[in-house]
Amino acid sequence: MADARLEPIQGGSRGTLVSDAVRAAIYSGRFQPGEAIREMQLARELRVSQTTVREALLQLEHAGLVVREANRGTRVTSLSEQDIRERIAVRLMLETSAAAETVRRMTPEHLAELETQMHEIASAVRRNSYYESAQADLAFHRAIWRGSGNQTLFRLLDELTVPLFAFVSMRQSSNVTDLRRRVRSHEPILAALRSGQAAAVRKAIHGHLTTSYRQFLEGTVDAALVSPDPGKS
Amino acid sequence: MADARLEPIQGGSRGTLVSDAVRAAIYSGRFQPGEAIREMQLARELRVSQTTVREALLQLEHAGLVVREANRGTRVTSLSEQDIRERIAVRLMLETSAAAETVRRMTPEHLAELETQMHEIASAVRRNSYYESAQADLAFHRAIWRGSGNQTLFRLLDELTVPLFAFVSMRQSSNVTDLRRRVRSHEPILAALRSGQAAAVRKAIHGHLTTSYRQFLEGTVDAALVSPDPGKS
DNA sequence: TGTCAATCGGTTAACGATAATCGCTTATTG
DNA sequence: CAATAAGCGATTATCGTTAACCGATTGACA
User: Fold this and answer.
1) Cβ atoms within 10 A of the Cβ of A202, count?
2) Which of A38, A185, B200, B209 is most buried, by CB atoms within 10 Å?
3) Straight-line distance from CA A68 to C1' C7, in Å?
4) Residue ranges of the domains in chain A?
5) Thinking of the domain A14-76, which architecture would CATH place it in?
6) pTM of this prediction?
7) B83 touching A, CB under 8 A?
8) Which residues of B fall within a CB distance of 8 Å from A56?
């Protein structure tokens, strides 16, 4: 009973299938931010009804990947500078606390999983695969969020961050230097997690995020919401 | 141009109308937590198509008021003890930071608005109107969130808290003592906001929330995620 | 020639009907 | 008699079509 011979069939509903397809198209850049997505056209291309497409778009809207305007249409989300700063600020609040909790509950197995994810990032970077390295990067952070044991917290961080990955990384030049930095910048987090000290983890996450998003944060008038943890003004 | 003579007509899409109707029914208790909501039945009662009802239910699912299971049906969300604890923990993280930012940007106008909201709460309590006092309570907190100037933060707090109000207050006895407490427990927040000191505001919010939700928090094994701010273990 | 209303093209919103899926009950069969 | 399959009722998922809506453009009229 413990291990079935067959995997449960995947695919879910047709709407989810469509949603996945569009999501992949957005990530891979086939749909550009700001570009309109027409329900009927998509329905024809994918051989499904408009209703199904609509349900998929509703899901994507929830995930923050598209925006829908009544009677006007759907377009790929194009995060404004302000949107990005806001998301980063909130992510900073949540992820530092999540990681601090994660380190408290850390098991050797979980630490091993994080090290594996780290290897995945490095591997993708070695292959110079930008898309996959971003996926691995996200997976690493997800593993940290999950470790907090708070599903609500995980869900919110996911909702907040997925569009960030989709649209921020899109702008960053994917040159070799940036990719190398992607590996290095995660190492202090892992080190802090190994140390088991919550304060160190908070600092590591804070440093990682502010560094990673430096180019989006500089020029922010109110840095307050961006660094609520240290520097208690 | 600045002030129109007429308000923009409300009502939005039919789907939103249905969604509002169901939301009100949930809040008022006409739909109980755990109760099934049948699409076709609702469609007949409201004289709209099943598609429209479905869109409404999708909206409500996003808001966390109902849960939908593929091919099984929709039911009113019944938050588990764990869900509630998780939401409180995350709300604590976000609202303390939001309020700290709000106090930094506070204007006399905004402070006046909060005082007005406070009067609304007191007024509803005097009328012994439980439902309205809960609405006013929520409005007070919303005003604080909005003051942070971070729309993303506002949205997340809303998403997180609305179901809390819907289902937590439902369980609390709405006796006179509880209602009086509802007024009193907000006063320290207002006082802290007037003082202008971020640290005081953080403490006030923390105190308010842990007090308000005491009955749901006691017995929590890991209080860590619930008090990430003070008492740095 | 400027203003406003009617029209038009394109798109989403809503509809009614059918198909697919689920859990449960009832047969069937070895 | 137990295990399994077939059938049933209820419900959601999907479909194709029609209605409503928005913004831009055209055209009439002062």
Assistant:
1) 21
2) B209
3) 27
4) 14-76, 81-226
5) Orthogonal Bundle (1.10)
6) 0.85
7) yes
8) none
